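Working notes for the structural subgroup meeting. M.R. asked for a predicted model of this chain before we commit to crystallization trials. I am recording the input and output together here so anyone reviewing the notebook later can reproduce the run.

Input as submitted:
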Amino acid sequence: MVFITIFNIMGSLGLFLFGMKIMSDGIQKAAGRRLQAILKFMTGNRFLAVLTGFLVTGLIQSSSATTVMVVGFVNAGLLTLKQAIGVIMGANIGTTVTGWIVAIVGFKVKIAVIALPALAIGLPLRLNTRLGKQDWGEACTGLGLLFLGLEFLKSSIPSIQDNPEILHFLANFTDLGAFSFLIFVAVGTIVTIIVQSSSAAMAITLTMAYSGWIDFPTAAAIVLGENIGTTATAFIASIGTNVSARRASRAHTLFNVFGVLWMAFLIKPFLALVDLIVPGSAGTGGGITAHLAMFHTLFNLVNTSLCIGFVGRIEALVKKLVKVHKGEEELLYQLKYISAKGQDTAELNIANAKLELSRMAGLVGRMFDRFLLVFKNPDKKMGNEVESVKRMEDYTDRMQEDISAFLARCAQQSLNQASANNVNAMIRIAHELETIGDSCFNLMILAQRRYEGAIVLPETALIDLQPYTKVVSDFIDFITERLNRHLSQDDLEAAFRLERTVNDYRNRLKDEAQERLSKGSEVKSELLYIEIVRQIEQIGDQALNVAQALRQIR
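Returned structure, recorded in token form:
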């Protein structure tokens, strides 16, 4: 009988989690680009960041999804650490909406009134491809399954009247003073880590409180533990990311742990305040669920109010706690030389944009050097180098986007013909440099494939490849050194000679690979080798395009 009850609870929780995931995924698919646009709109305004975190989390009903998204955006350089901290604070407030939905709708309204119509609307939208509303259909279906799971969870929890031994068991831990508080905070933390959803953990807590298993103070302590446990998702998401993303996840943990620490000393007066605000008794039934929802919301509002003025200090603290790993670059996206508004004179703006292009060229040069380092060490595990080049590639994408947008704004000003030509050429250079960055990342992926597949390349092929990579490396240096000045005719002819040399090497190396294939060489290794040769040759083509654009700059 006990096992049946346990399996019923687990199955009900599984349906609840499944419904929540489908609903959250559906909403993110339907409004994903808008959500990302909202997050990208972040400025240094911490209050706007908090509001954004609240709105996004309230919409998708998952603080875990928001914090994971934030960690990903920080990793890609789309958000600064300071902006991320504000969004995380808002996400903590936004996640309390779930508690209110469960407390008010889940326990006071008949579930079938919501669940079945949601499924009736969602499934046809999900299955009918002609309407083009599959994502919203998925969200409605998830909502229906979520409430069905909640209904099953309510019916699976044994009645306290029929099982008084449960109350006696829990009573053993409720009269231990401060130790009781710590025990139930730990319970909330562990449950949330296990189910990987603070919303699901909150639903379990509300259901137990509603059924009379736990009283208001015990449930409040469990809710506080859930605030700590929910940080585990962002922590897991930050594994393998850059230092800024790891710092964002740690800031989430610090923020929530700090809230539980000060609440430990003020738990009794805080509960009394909630009791004063919420009408009705905090006993079992609907009264305690409303009290818990209010406690959860009020706690996160107060905690955010206490911390919002110290975002800068939180940022400084996590920077001290999370150090840059050896060999890891702290690559934060930030244009050094140009302002977002472009308020300087047109000529000065163009000069500053040239400096940004120089930074971009230096970056792609380092990316190619990183590829050569990994490629020349096929027996060493160099995953950090691969991740580093991936971050650099993301960085070059953002640089191209912002530099081009900045130059487009410059073009709207009254420019002479020479400056207008410069702007057009520089936009082309930004595009070509970003494409070189893409090719470098593709080369790094090929080098990683070689390592993971233990692919052995012919020794003669590796020897022949060295002068080829040397020419391309020289070509990148060639355009980097000349990026801020007009390219002379002699320099342009030198660029064409370099590009012809690259093409000659490409043709010879491909012919040699095909000849080895005809003689029975390993197909997998030769195909990998040919693709590496092709990607390197593309960098030569793109470098020539940069040189031709530099010829137009005055």
